[in-house]
Amino acid sequence: MPLSLQNQTLLPGRNFIGGEWCGSADDRTLSVADPATDEVFAAVPDSTAADARRAVDVAHAAFPAWRKTPAKQRAQIIKRWNDLIVSHVEDLGRLISREQGKPLAEGKGEVLYAASYVEWFAEEATRADGDVIAAPVPGRRMLALREPVGVIAAITPWNFPAAMIARKIAPALAAGCTVVCKPAEDTPLTSLALVRLAEQAGVPPGVLNIVTASRERAAEVVDVWLDDARVRKITFTGSTPVGKHLARRSADTLKKLSLELGGNAPFIVFDDADLDAAVDGLMVSKFRNGGQTCVCPNRIYVQDKVHDAFVDKLAARVGALVVAPATNPAAQIGPMINARAVDKIERHVKNAVSRGARVVIGGERIRNEQCPGPNYYAPTVLVDVDASMDCSCEETFGPVAPVTRFSTEADVVAAANATPFGLAAYFYSNDVRRIWRLADALESGIVGINEGALAAEAAPFGGVKDSGYGREGSRYGLEEYMHIKYVCQGLLD
C-alpha cells in the first residue's frame, strides 16, 4: 500500500543539494521496502560519486556565509526546525514505523526524542563561548576562540532514522558548519522528511545537503567525501569495521572524526538488587526497537542467589510481549529490519543451543496471520549462556536476552570487560560502595546504575575501545563540531 501522510510534501523522494530537490546523476533509483511485508512502497535516488561531489561543492561554497551568521540567528532557524518536527510528530512517526518497522508508539517517541536534540542545540548555539587566558607577561592579551570545523559529512544508520539525523545535524548547524549527509539505504525517507522541514525552517541553500544511495553504491558516495580535503569532519554511527575503514581513509586529509560504533553491553544483576526494578530496566533497554539498538544489553549476568527468580520474572514479561506490525496498535515488537537481521538472530540462538544454552521462551521465527511477513522473530530468553557462544561475542541486534550466572563481583567485572567493545554497561545493586566500585571498574563510555533508559539530549553519548570515540548530545557534542583558535595580541602597554 502507498504511504499516505497528512503532509505529503514530507515525501520528496529526491536528493537535496544546494537548495534543490533532484534525482541522481544517472536517474537510477533505490527501492524502499516495508520490513513488515517486504513490500516496496517508495523509491529514492541511488546516488553517484558525481552527486556526492556536487553536494560538497555547494556545502563548501555556503560555509563562509553560514559561519558568519550570528549564533542567535542560527539558533532561531534551528528552533523553527524543532517546532516543525514536533508539529509533524504523527506523520513522522508513521513514516518511521513504515520504513523501519518499529511500533507506531515507538516511532512517535523517536520523533520527540529527535526533536529534543534539535531544541537543545538551538539553545547551545548561543553558548559556544571562548576563553580569555591570563597572560604570563605584561602587555599581552591571549584568547581561545571556538570556530566551526567546516564541511561535515554525516553518515547515519537505519535503527533510529530521525534521532541519528537530529543528533548529528543539529550540533553541526549550531556550530556554524555546513553538512552533506547520506542516510542508511533501508530508511532514507525519514531523513529526507526532516531535511524538508529544515528547508521550511529557513536553513539557507547549500548549508544542508542529503544524498541517498543503495548498499552497492554507498562506498562510491562516501569515498568522495573521505578523499575531499574540503570535508573537515566525518560523523558516523554504525559498525566497528566500517568505522575503522572511515578512520583509515580519513588519515590522508586528517579529518576530525566522531565514531559511534558497535557495542556488547553487559547488564549485571547483583543479589542485593531490586529484582522487579532490574526486570523493568532490562525490558526497557533490551527490547526497545526490537533489540535493534547499539546500547541494548547483549550479555546479561545474574548472581547465583537470585538467578532463578530473575529468570522467572523476565520470562513472564517477555512472554507477554505482543509481536505485530506497526499497523497493529497493540504492537510492542515489530519486524526486524530485513532478512539478514533475522538470519543473524537465528544463527546466534542455534549456536548457543548447540553449545549448551537452553531456550526458556521464544527461540524461533514467527510467521502467522498476525505477522505475515518473513522478518519477525519471537522475543527470546536463553539461560546457561557462556562466553564462547556467538551471542556473547557479537551484537545480536534483536530481541534475544542471553542470561549467564555468576558468583562474585570480581568474576563479573572481568567478564563484563572481556570484550573489545565499550559503549554501554548496566548494573543493578543497592550496595552504595559497590555502586561506585563498579562505576569506576566498567570499561564503558556510558554506565547505567539501577536505570535502563540512558540517552538524553543533555548527556554525552559515546564509547571507548572498539566502540569508537567522540560524543554526541550535551555541550560536549557541540565541541565535536568546533576547533580552538588561539589568538595572542601583544604591544598592549
TrEMBL record:
Residues the record marks as active site: 260
Pfam family, one: Aldedh
InterPro entries in the record: Ald_DH/histidinol_DH (IPR016161), Ald_DH_C (IPR016163), Ald_DH_CS_CYS (IPR016160), Ald_DH_CS_GLU (IPR029510), Ald_DH_N (IPR016162), Aldehyde_DH_dom (IPR015590), Aldehyde_DH_Superfamily (IPR050740), Succ_semiAld_DH (IPR010102)
The keyword Oxidoreductase appears for this protein: yes
SUPFAM superfamilies: ALDH-like
Superkingdom, taxonomy of origin: Bacteria
Domain Aldehyde dehydrogenase residue range list: 23-487
Key words of the record: Oxidoreductase
Molecular function as annotated in GO: succinate-semialdehyde dehydrogenase (NAD+) activity
GO BP of this protein: gamma-aminobutyric acid catabolic process
Similarity comment: family membership: Belongs to the aldehyde dehydrogenase family.
Protein name: Succinate-semialdehyde dehydrogenase (NADP(+))
Species whose genome carries this gene: Cupriavidus lacunae
